Amino acid sequence: MKSRSKFDDAYVGLFTTAGRVAERILGDASAGEDIAVETLARALVSWRRVGGGAEPWVIRMATNLSLDSVKHRRPRSAPADARSDDAVVGRVEVLDGLRHLSRRQGQVVTLHYLVGLSDEDIAGTLSIPGSEVTTHLERGLLALRDRLPPAEPAESDGTAEGQAETDRTTQDGVPAVRGPAAGRDPEGRDPEGRDPEGRDAEHHEGVGS
Question: Which domains does the chain have, with CATH numbers?
Answer without folding.
Answer: 1-73 (1.10.1740), 83-150 (1.10.10.10)
